[in-house]
Amino acid sequence: MNVEELIRQYDSGERDFSGIKLSGSNLLGVNLSHANLKSANLHGVEFHGANLSNSILVNAYFEGVSLRYAILDGADLTDAKLVESDLQCASLKGANLERVVIMDCRWDRTDLSQANLRNVEVAGEDIEEDFSEAILHETVMPSGAVYYHKPMAREKFLNDYAKGCREFSVNNDYYNYDEWDLLQIKHFDLSGCDLSGIRLSNADLIGANLQGANLSGAYLFEVCLHDANLEGANLEIVT
Known about the structure:
By secondary structure, this protein is low in regular secondary structure. The longest helix has 10 residues, at about 155-160. The protein contains three helices and eight strands.
């Protein structure tokens, strides 16, 4: 099927294009929202600025594809393969990328807010490094941990604390990832809080009250605890 026929059928109401072969096609800026492109061969397709929101891209094959500024909000890419593709500035808010295999893709300023990256496989690269330039917030990471945008960590923590929450351990979906960087809660009362297994780096806990807190198994890197009260705290295997 050529591009003209695809667009004609889509405009007439057709949405099922599963298994379609579009290798090398120019679909710059087209609207294919809610289209079923399951198992589609999209090798070398130009999707720059295209609207693929809420589309079904399960098991689709992307190689050398340009998705710069494309909209894939709510799209289902489960089991898809992304090879040497450019997703810079694309929006994948709420998209499902579970079990997607990724190799040598660009994610600069890609919005992955609320996206599901569970069990994503990045071939030959460190998983966190590959998404280091993407926008991550309420994103389910490959490990299953939920990542929150780091600048919001302190506000989220303080709001939860004010509501009576004292469980901030690795078992809490929000606090079991490395979003605690640069958290400044000096002179704060953390007495009795469960902070077991947390990863805390570059944090300012000067004068904080950690009396009776559980820090067992916590990872503390460049954390300032000057004048902090650690009386009765559980520091077993703190690194």
